[in-house]
């Protein structure tokens, strides 16, 4: 089972693309280190207060995939610099 989640995020306290990249790099590296997922910024690369993050994981059971994706979303939500807005799940 392959699970994918794409979430749009708003980063309020940044004034440049450099600050945005710093916030996203921190979040993405924490996600990769702590969870069994692949994660990348996939949209809005040239806008400094918006971001789209895609997360993918693979497991033999849908429940395991869903738990891992929800852990990743919880980590994003626990980061005070970023707010998750639109979230879409896909299953393959």
Write up this protein.
It is elongated, with a radius of gyration of 13 Å. It starts with a strand and ends with a strand. The mean pLDDT is 95. The protein has a four-stranded antiparallel sheet, with helices on one face. The chain has one domain (2-91): TT1725-like (Alpha-Beta Plaits). 37% of the residues lie in helices and 38% in strands. The chain is of the alpha+beta class and 92 residues long. The protein has helices at residues 17-34, 62-77, and strands at 2-11, 38-43, 50-58, 82-91. It comes from Anaerobacillus alkalidiazotrophicus. This is DUF503 domain-containing protein. InterPro entries: DUF503, TT1725-like_sf.
